[in-house]
Amino acid sequence: MSLDPSLPVGERIKVLRERRGLSRAVVAGLCGRSESWLKKIEQGTRQAVRLPTLLRLAEILRLDDLAELTGQRLPLAVYGKSAHPALPALQQVMMTYPLGAVSATEVDRLPSVSELQRRLDDAVTLWRTSRHHRTEVGALLPSLLTQTHQVVRVLAGTERRAAAVVLAGTYHMTQKVLAYQPVPELIFLAADRGMAAAQEADDPLAIARSAWYLAHVLRRSGQLDQADRVVTEAAELVKPGRDDASSEYRAMWGSLQLARGLTAALDYDFGTAWRFWDMADDIARSLGEDYWHSWNGFGPVNMQLDGVSIDVTLGRYGDAARRAANIEVASIPSVPDRSWYLVEVARGYLARRDDVAVYHLLSRAYQESPEMVKHGQFGRSVIQQLMERNHLVVRSEVRALAAKIDIAT
After folding, report:
1. Buried b (16+ CB within 10 A) or exposed e, 167-198
2. 268: which residues sit within 8 A by CB, 6+ positions away?
3. Which alpha helices (H) appear in 61-156, and where do they start and end?
4. How far is CA 105 from CA 13, 84, 108, 159, 393, in A?
5. Contacts of residue 64, Cβ cutoff 8 Å, sequence gap at least 6
6. At 180, phi and psi to the nearest 5?
7. Average of pLDDT values for 274-298?
8. Rounded Cα gap, residues 272 and 301, in angstroms
9. Collapsing DSSP states into helix, strand and coil, what is residue 333?
10. Each residue of 360-407: pLDDT tens digit?
11. From the CB of residue 45, how many other CB atoms can be counted at a distance below 10 Å?
């Protein structure tokens, strides 16, 4: 139900908070503020709600448009996200629908399924190892998507199903590049097409991986029940106890339990979030201390990173700081994961109002991967909130960092 356009911002926040079933104390805590602060905002006795705070409230309340808070058309994509240069080429490929038959000349020039798989594996490796992962992987995907589609169209039987598995994986990588870009329709399209390709392949692991990626999109759009449902159903395809329950199957099952925990955290369901995290962690530990899945990073190390993220999401910043103290950044195998983790820890310290620590963590995150800070989920909003606080000790450094990722100072 839409709100009356004349409704003040404070009253809008109250209505939207209550619709989400969140207490004033919970929302204020997730903003790193006091309950009395939020009460004054909602009652209209405190008027100034600046942009970074509105962005954080929008994240907590699962809104896609600031107009729902302000009554004015201010899309979040304009303020919370920065378009990547790889976006136009990917957008063009994904919105092109070649309906004619593939000519004989084109068929002769098409790569084999094994060659397409090698190119996809190279993209996965590049994503893990490059500081500029979106740029470098994004440059590979348009041709890989086009050719894999063509190969799927001209093959039949077992070969077609194998090509469809590659196509699903290529859409997963496309979704990674598009994630947190101002094109939510393309992100959903990539996730949906990945699932369609996996189902065409009739491959349990491909379907489970696609469910993992689709759940990210559903969570981000606030469709928490649907996100939980898709991973629950997919987990049945790879559950432990199967005759073919290899480490790949077990890792995928564990990943899907983690997905359920992440969904519960976004719903502020503490007990359920940690119950599923524990189930996933047991699987991760059973796979070995050094296990790390190349597709989504599942393993003992990344389970601890996700534990920090769950603590931050639930507003348990002290727990997040204590958990983070036991994680060595250099032990994280993936470059963007290291940067993402540092941003997550920075979010926790931001809520504790330790702005010097936040700046230090963001600087390290930027050194690991500038693109994760600029184009990831929270890097820009954290920097915007630091700028708002204007801590004199790090003010000039924060502004310099903001300029590097194209935030106006």
Report:
1. bbbbbbbbbbbbbbbbbbebbbbbbebbbebb
2. 22, 26, 314
3. 67-70, 76-80, 87-94, 104-109, 113-129, 133-154
4. 60, 35, 5, 20, 65
5. 58, 76, 184, 221, 222
6. 65, 15
7. 94
8. 21
9. coil
10. 999 999 999 999 999 988 899 899 889 988 899 999 999 999 999 988
11. 9
How far apart CA 134 and CA 177 sit, in angstroms, is: 5
Collapsing DSSP to helix, strand or coil, 393 comes out as coil
CB 362 within 8 A of CB 383: yes
Helix axes 204-220, 224-235, angle to 10 degrees: 170
Longest dimension (CA), the chain: 72
Q: Is the pLDDT confidence value at 257 over 60?
A: yes
Return the HEC string of 148-185.
HHHHHHHCCHHHHHHHHHHHHHHHHHHHHHHCCCCCHH
Nearest CA to 313 out of 70, 22, 83, 64 is that of 22
pLDDT tens digits for 89-100?
999 999 998 887
- In 3-state terms, the chain is what percent helix, strand and coil (to 5)? 70, 0, 30
**Residue 246 half-sphere exposure toward CB, CA atoms < 13 A:** 4
β partners of residue 65: 75
- Nearest 5°: phi and psi at 275? -65, -45
pLDDT-based confidence at residue 79 (cuts at 50, 70, 90): very low
Least confident of 72-86, 189-203, 300-314: 72-86
What is the average per-residue pLDDT within 132-148? Answer: 97
Q: Check: CB of residue 198 under 8 Å from CB of residue 163.
A: no
Q: Are 276 and 260 in contact (CB under 8 A)?
A: yes
Sketch out the chain's domains with CATH numbers: 9-76 (1.10.260.40), 81-202 (no CATH), 335-409 (no CATH)
Average pLDDT, the chain: 89
The predicted model gives 163-183 an average pLDDT of 95
Using DSSP's 3-state secondary structure scheme, residue 406 falls into coil
Residues 50-78 have pLDDT tens digits of: 666 777 788 788 886 777 777 765 444 44
Q: What is the DSSP letter of 2?
A: P
Both structure tokens of 262: 């992440």
